[in-house]
Amino acid sequence: MLIKDIILNQFSIVMILFANAKINLGLHITGKRSDGYHNIETVLYPVPHYDVIEFYPADQYSLHLYGETVPGSAEENIVTKAFRLLKTQHSIPEIEMHLLKNIPAGSGLGGGSSDAANLLSGLNRYFHLRINHDEVSQMAESLGSDCPFFLENRPMLASGKGEILQEIDIDLKGYFLVLAFPEIHIPTEKAYSFVKGPFERHSDLNEIIDMPVEKWNGLLTNDFENAIFSKYPELEAIKSNLTENGALYASLTGSGSVIYGIYKNRPSLKKLRPDVKYLNYNL
User: Fold this and answer.
1) d(Cα 105, Cα 185) in Å, to the nearest integer?
2) Among 22, 101, 115, 239, which one carries the catalytic annotation?
3) Do residues 211 and 219 touch, judged by C-beta distance below 8 A?
């Protein structure tokens, strides 16, 4: 079972973590780096769609996966890498971990990064390691550029590879969010291979985000859209469908396949495409 008794075998208390997703409000690719990565500028915004992580001490490490399919072996999973990384630096026992994946891989919602960041933070608390925030953030960054964001978990302007974070004043409370989940998996590396320079100069994201949501269309852009939509035209059709059915703003999130729409009033999912899975949240 995924959720076990609160107290396991009279010795170990189970820790349960809820690792949330994010959406990107705009994403500008500003250039290719000498290390092969790209510099970007984007606003990362936490949203209430969650993976669930459960762990407790065990004689040997194990990872049990449920829900959405995760490519690769357990040893290749980012949560295993997060655990191994922490264990090389601090004396902690092995753990048994259960991971319920509700955030699909390759969706652009940051599920793997969130899982890793939340696990590092959770292990730190569970084993009373007292690792300071900066050290945890450095470990998180070594696992993925957007991992440190999930330690902050508030709206942030991200630059560099996505690891340089700056607080940004935006609050979508009161709006409604629709996430559209096509059955498409787009690995980050593959998405970047679609994008070719030279890269355009863009309007300032701070200035655009400061505008009302109703004015974002045509100004707040994701540089992956043109390249990804040319490969997967069904994604562009999903975005258009959201806009045609009342979304104030709709966009691809990150480099992945999920399309989101922001609404002023709670939308009726019945009016959307019947061949696509949708989830609706109150922000």
Assistant:
1) 7
2) 22
3) yes
Assess if residue 1 is contained within a domain.
no
* Beta carbons of 69 and 184 less than 8 angstroms apart: no
Please state the pTM of the whole predicted model: 0.92
Catalytic status, residue 134: no
Question: Which residue segment(s) compose the domain that 100 sits in?
Answer: 7-167
Judged by phi (left if over 0) then psi (alpha if -120 to 50, else beta), residue 128 lies in left
Return d(Cα 176, Cα 157) in angstroms, integer: 21
Phi, psi (degrees; rounded to nearest 5) at 56: -160, 155
Could you tell me which residues come within 8 angstroms of residue 140 by beta carbon, excluding any fewer than 6 positions away?
82, 116, 117, 120, 147, 148, 150, 151
My answer on whether 137 and 161 are in the same domain is yes
Query: And the tokens for 74?
Result: 């357990």
Domain holding 42: CATH number?
3.30.230.10
Residue finishing a domain among 118, 134, 167: 167
| Options 51, 101, 115, 146, the catalytic residue | 146
274's CB contacts (< 8 A; 6+ apart) are: none
Q: Is 22 a catalytic residue?
A: yes
Domain count, the chain: 2
Spatial CB neighbours of 48, under 8 Å, sequence gap ≥ 6: 20, 281, 283
Structural contact between residues 147 and 140, judged by C-beta atoms closer than 8 angstroms: yes
pLDDT in tens, 183-222: 998 888 888 888 876 677 777 899 999 999 999 999 999 9
Q: Enter the tokens of residue 38.
A: 């790209």
Task: List the helix and strand counts (H, then E) for the chain.
Answer: 8, 12
pLDDT tens digits, 23-62: 999 999 988 877 777 889 999 999 999 999 999 999 999 9
Kind and range of the H or E run holding 114: helix 111-126
**pLDDT top residue among 99 and 10:** 99
